[in-house]
Amino acid sequence: MIAIRGQLGGAVQAAVDAVANEGSAALSVADAGTKEAFLDAWTRKFAAHARYLRAKGLSLDAPVVVVYVNDSAKFASGAGWDRQPMLGAAPTDRLTGMFAVATADIGGYAHPTRFKDTSEITDQIRQLGLASALTVALMSTSELVTWPHGIDAELSPYQRKLDDAPVVFNLSIVTLALDQFYELVARQTTTWWLKAGERITVPSPEGTVQNDLWLFLLGKYSEIAKVKCETRIGNGRSDLTIDPLVKPEHQSAVLELKVTRDVRTPEVEGRKPTTISLTENVQWAISGVQQTAAYRDDEGFDGAFLCVYDFCASKGAKLDTAIQGAANKHGVIAKRYWITASHKEHREERYAV
Amino acid sequence: MTKSAIQPNPNGAGMWKAWVLLCLGEASRMGLTPLATSQLHVVLYLANTLADLFEVTRVRGRVLKHGPFPFFPDVQWEIDRLAFSDVLSIEKVDFGAKNHLSAYYALGDRGADIYEGLLTQAEEARRTARLFRELVSACFGHFLGSRTDIGPIDANYGDANVMDGEVVDFAEWKDENMNMQVAQHLIERLRKLRPSVGRDGVRLYCDYLDKAMGLS
Fold it and tell me: Contact at 8 Å (CB) between B20 and B40?
């Protein structure tokens, strides 16, 4: 062993330097044992497994499915599941047909049966009461699917094509991802509304939107970027940050999310909701321009985004004008996404006659 | 289970028991139990060296340098007491050379209840649990599933200035805790990527141990 030791006690300097040079992959996006850390890790592991199979010219005979549970031992021990402390450690492991539950980015419990197809695994997931749990599935060597709120959730799963084409992560890719998220998750969603007919949102709409967007971006870009939520920057916290693992060909971004809505959600059900004026909404949205521009400049991000998720009944022309004017002044990429409250609204906007 | 002439130190015994329960509780949640004796001692040692990252009060800031991995004989005495009172369960026992026994520990039914109780009652316990959550995840994600001999490459324990049989003291002076120095050095080197000081400090140090083992 070549060990140059000194300033750092018994530490091997070559290993310290290796971590510093390659360590970006080891950095976390969330606390161990959380859904977000699980999703970040398992999408990367499955993508690596698919890459290994493609490189060897092998196919995946049956899907591989892993479901998040809060306490894998409590869930699986005593139920005949196979404890696998090294599950996920090597992309070369034979995973075909495996159905597992896990809590962290390594280890878990595998079902004793190797399944042949998705319908068998789906039945098992439902029987075990896991239909609303975060699920990640490698369907083939070229397709990865994530169900952020479980296989029976109203939300569509996130499908991702896997290939060996090089990806350059830049601000255009972020814009595209935000648009995809809007189409897939935000349009006509029922999970963000409490009473859509009265345009009353869930109690913390910004947090809900932020969490869904975070899961979406994690599932999509975990191999090339660290997508983090509520990163502490200076005296504040940014909503989402995207830091690609390899620079300089990639670009980093900070995202500030704002929700505009017609009424505040009443704390007590049945109470009359308080109206929010257009002026208040404009001021709130514009404050996001200042925040995201400041985060970008203070921390050296390549781009700053303001994403306004607009739950208001109006089509938002005035809001658009206001935020675009402020955004242009500070070089911020501002996007306003209108959240429809019904299929009728969706049809009228997309298929106007 | 290792025979020791060292009598248990009443100071900190309760804290050690709590740490053992929190460590095994977090490992269990992740499907990583049972932990072998050596794995348990390595995680307990690393938790003491990296406790500052999570603003956790360490139980002990020194360890006798003897053998390929850090080992606390008096803590083993407490662990065995917990096992024999059904707080922990011993899942299996390996019989090694020279009659050295290595037990594999998990939470017993009583231990699971106490672990839950600790998390409910004390903020310090929750911070300590977070530390162990990151540690067991990072250690098993790297080296600890196959190797526990961190002694020669650990920044504190492997310091050539401390001879075998002497005490490794990493607590009297802050700048003598070389594990923390390595973690902070790595955090600083990767600052542009905005690491989270607490959890990434733990992960980067474990990544260091893994890479150093690969070089040895």
Answer: yes
* Contact of B162 with B65, CB cutoff 8 Å: yes
> What is the H or E stretch that residue B104 is in?
strand B101-107
Q: And the tokens for B210?
A: 């893994």
pLDDT score at B7: 44
| In the predicted structure, residue B134 carries a pLDDT above the cut 90 | yes
Asked whether the beta carbons of residue B211 and residue A299 sit closer than 8 angstroms, the reply is no
Residues 27-66 of B with CB under 8 A from A: 28-33
Phi and psi at residue A22, in whole multiples of 5°?
-115, 0
pLDDT, tens digit (0-9, with 9 covering 90-100), for A150-189: 999 988 899 999 999 888 899 999 999 999 999 998 886 7
Cα–Cα distance between A268 and A262 in angstroms, integer?
18
- Chain A residue with minimum CA distance to B210: A15
Whether A152 contacts A132, CB under 8 Å: yes
Q: How many residues does this entry show for chain A?
A: 353
A34 touches chain B (CB under 8 A): no
What ipTM did this prediction achieve? 0.90
Give the chain A residue whose CA is nearest to the CA of B160: A10
Write out pLDDT tens, residues B103-128. Answer: 999 999 899 999 999 999 999 999 99
Which regions of chain A does DSSP assign to beta strands (E)?
64-68, 82-84, 99-102, 108-110, 135-140, 143-147, 158-161, 193-195, 200-201, 225-229, 232-233, 236-237, 240-244, 253-260, 303-310, 333-338
What six digits make up the tokens of B70? 């850090």
Q: Which of B181, B190, B211 sits opposite A27 (nearest CB)?
A: B190
Chain A residues within 8 A of B30 when measuring between CB atoms: 32-33, 72-73, 102-104, 106-107
Chain A nearest-CA distance from B158, in A, is: 4
B8 band by pLDDT with thresholds 50, 70 and 90 = very low
Indicate the pTM of the whole model. Answer: 0.89
Residue-by-residue DSSP string for A137-197: EEEETTEEEEETT-TTSSSPPEEEE---------HHHHHHHHHHHIIIIITT-STTEEEGG
What the block records as the tokens of A321 is: 């004008």
pLDDT at site A94: 93
Regions of chain A with pLDDT less than 70:
1-6, 188, 231-238, 247
Q: Pick from B140, B194, B212: which is nearest to A241 by CB?
A: B194
- Whether the Cβ atoms of residue A217 and residue A240 lie closer than 8 Å to each other: yes
Chain B, 110 to 139: residues with Cβ < 8 Å from chain A are 130, 133-134, 136-138
Residues of B in contact with A3 (CB under 8 A): 153, 215
- Measured distance CA(B26)–CA(A237) in Å, rounded: 28
Alpha-carbon distance of A227 to A252, in angstroms, equals 10
